[in-house]
Amino acid sequence: MKRIYSIEDACIGCHLCEIGCITEHSLSKDPVKAFMHEKERPISRCTVEELNGGITSLSTTCRHCDEPDCLQACISGAIQKDSEGVVRLDREQCVGCWSCVMACPYGAIQRNLASKKANKCDLCPDRETPACVDACPNRALVYREGSQK
Amino acid sequence: MNYVIVGNSVAAVGAIRAIRALDQQGNITVISREKHNAYGRPLISYLLGGLINEKRMSYLPDEFYSRHRINLLLNSEVIGVDTDSRKVKLVGGDTIAYDRLLLATGGDPFVPPIEGIADKDRIFTFTTWDDAAKLKVISQDINHAVVIGGGLIGLKAAEGLNLLNKSVTVIELADRVLSSAFDRPAGKIVARKMKANGIDVITEDTVVRIEGEGTEITGVTLKSGDFIPCDTVIVAIGVRPAAGFLKESNIEIKRGIVVDNTMATSAKDVFAAGDVAEAADFFSEQKNPMPIWPDAYIQGDIAGTAMAGGAKTYAGGLAMNSIEFFKVSTISMGITNPADPSEFEIHSFQDIQNYQYRKIVLKNNLLVGAVLVGNVDRAGIFSGLIKEKIDMKLFKESLLLPDFGFVNLSREIRDTLFSPLGKSVNKDIPAMATGH
Ligand SMILES: Cc1cc2nc3c(=O)[nH]c(=O)nc-3n(C[C@H](O)[C@H](O)[C@H](O)COP(=O)(O)OP(=O)(O)OC[C@H]3O[C@@H](n4cnc5c(N)ncnc54)[C@H](O)[C@@H]3O)c2cc1C
C-alpha cells in the first residue's frame, strides 16, 4: 500500500504539513477559517518534531502498520484496518480511553482533549495525495508504495 | 479442519482474524455463554454511567461473523473438554468435535466468603455487560454503594455509579488504589482526583462483615472497626482465570492455563489465550496471567496463527494500562514499582497539585517501565522502546522531557521508522525513483 515517508534532511521545520492536515480535516477546508472561526478546530495528525531550535526536524505520522498495535489495544473497536490497509479510527465509536496512544510505538495518535476522541491519520480519503505531502514546500514528505518500516 | 473457540471476546477475535488470514476453508465454531456478540468489556462502566448507549458496546462491525464465516453459538456454556476423543461438551449434553481448540474464556470475578454475604440480595460483581445492565436497573434505588477493591474494575464501577450521582465508597486493602499498575505518587493522584469528585476512598482496610437483616444490606463493617452505611455492595477484588470447566481434563493449569510461546497448552492441539492463560512475562519469562485487553488480542493472534499452521512467537506479556479518571489521564507500562529498586535506575518528575507525574524505570540502560500522569501524549514511543529493547544509554536524559520524541533518539532509529528506504536517503537520488 501507499504510505507517507519522511526525509529528515529535506525537512525545514516549517510545520506546513500540520497546517495542511488541520485544514484538510476542517469543515471549511480553508486555513484562515479553520484557524480563526471554526469552533472545533481539528488537531494535526502529523507531528513535526524539532531539536536545537529546528536544526534537527522531521515530520512523523501513522505508518498504517500491517499489524497495528493501536488496533490490538483499542477497547471499543473504533480502530479497524480497512480492505485497502488503511488503519481507520471511527470517531463515533471512540471513547477517548487513550489505549491507542499508549500502544502506538510511532507516537502517531493524538489526543483531542476538546472532543475527547483520539485523532489519527486517515491518508486523506478525499484526496489523491495526503494534504501534508502536498503542503510540504521541500518534498520532505513522499507518498508512495512501500512497506511499514 | 475444525477450529473450535470457547469464548467470544477479544482473544477470540484476534484468533479468528489470524486463522482466516491463513485458512479460508476451515470451519470455525465460536461458543460463548454470554448472549452478546463480542463487546468492549472495558466499556461496561461507560454504559452504566450513561456515557455510551448499547449500540456502541459492539466491538465489531455487524458483518464480522458472516464475513469470517463463523458458526456462532451464543448462550452456550462449555462444561468439559475431552482431549482424548477431541470433543468439547456443552451444557445440555451436546458435544462438538475439534481438530484445533482454543480456550479463550477470560476471567471470572472472585467473590470471597465475607461474613453475611451469602444471604444478601444486592451484592454485585462488575465484569460483564449483564452486570452493568443489572446495576443500571436497580440504580434508582441505590443511595450509597460500597465497592470492595480499588483495582481497575472497582474504580471503574465506582466511576460508573458516580456518573449516576450515586454516593460511593471504595475500600482497598493496599495503601493506594490501582496498586498493581501504579506506584504510590500515581495512586495518590488518582485517589485525590476521585475524592475531589465525591468518591470516598478508604485504603489499608477491608470489609469483614456485611450487615443487615435478611436479604437487605444496611452497611459494612471494616477491619478497623469502622461502619459504612450502604444498601449495595460491589465486589471487585479481582478476576481469576475461568478454567474451572477443565478440572476433569488433563490440561495443565496453575493460576491460569499454562501455555508456551505459541499459546499451546500441555494438551495436543489445544491452545489458550487471553485472561484465562498463563504465559511468559516479557521481562522475567516467568509464566503468569496478564489480564489486560491488548495482551488478550495479541495472545489470540499468536494462538490463531499456530492453530492454522503458521509460525509466530509470543514476545512475552508486557503490562500496560491506560486509565482515565475524571479527566486525569494515566498510562503505565512495564515495571513501574520494582521490588528491589537498587537494580534499577529511576527518574521521575512530579507536580501533584497539577496532576502531573512522569516516571521512567531503566535496567542496564534498557527502558523497562514508565508511568505517565496528566501529559500522556505519545506514551506509545516508550512502549516501543521497551519492546524493541533499545539501548537508552545516550538518550536517558531526555526521557523525562514533556515533549520527548524521536528527535531525542538516534538518526538511525528515525530513518528506520520513517524514511522511505528505512535508511538515510541521499538527497541526490530522487525518492520517487526508488520504489519497492
Ligand atoms: C470493568 C472492566 C474494565 C476493564 N478495563 C480495561 C482497560 O481499560 N484496559 C485493559 O487493558 N483491560 C481492561 N479490562 C480487562 C479486559 O476486559 C480483559 O483483559 C479482556 O476482556 C480479556 O479478554 P478475553 O478474550 O481473554 O476474555 P473475556 O473478555 O473475559 O471473555 C471471555 C468470554 O468467554 C466466556 N466464557 C467463559 N467460560 C466459558 C465457558 N465455559 N463456555 C462458554 N463461554 C465461556 C465468558 O462468558 C466471556 O464472554 C477491564 C475489565 C473489566 C471487567
From TrEMBL, chain A:
CDD domains: CooF_like (cd10563)
Domain 4Fe-4S ferredoxin-type intervals: 2-32, 85-114
The keyword 4Fe-4S belongs to this UniProt entry's keyword annotation: yes
Keyword 4Fe-4S: yes
Highest taxon in the source lineage: Bacteria
Keyword tags: 4Fe-4S, Electron transport, Iron, Iron-sulfur, Metal-binding, Repeat, Transport
InterPro entries linked to this entry: 4Fe4S_Fe-S-bd, 4Fe4S_Fe_S_CS, ET_IronSulfur_Cluster-Binding
Pfam families with a match to the protein in the record: Fer4_11
Protein name, per record: 4Fe-4S dicluster domain-containing protein
Organism encoding this protein: Pelotalea chapellei
Phylogenetic classification of the source organism: Bacteria, Pseudomonadati, Thermodesulfobacteriota, Desulfuromonadia, Geobacterales
UniProtKB/TrEMBL annotation, chain B:
Gene3D superfamilies recorded: 3.30.390.30, FAD/NAD(P)-binding domain
InterPro entries, A to Z: FAD-bd_OxRdtase, FAD/NAD-bd_sf, FAD/NAD-binding_dom, FAD/NAD-linked_Rdtase_dimer_sf, Rubredoxin_C
Cofactor: FAD
Entry keyword set: FAD, Flavoprotein
Domain of life: Bacteria
Annotated NADH-rubredoxin oxidoreductase C-terminal domain residues: 321-390
The family this protein is said to belong to: Belongs to the FAD-dependent oxidoreductase family.
Protein name: FAD-dependent oxidoreductase
Species per Swiss-Prot/TrEMBL record: Pelotalea chapellei
Native organism taxonomy: Bacteria, Pseudomonadati, Thermodesulfobacteriota, Desulfuromonadia, Geobacterales
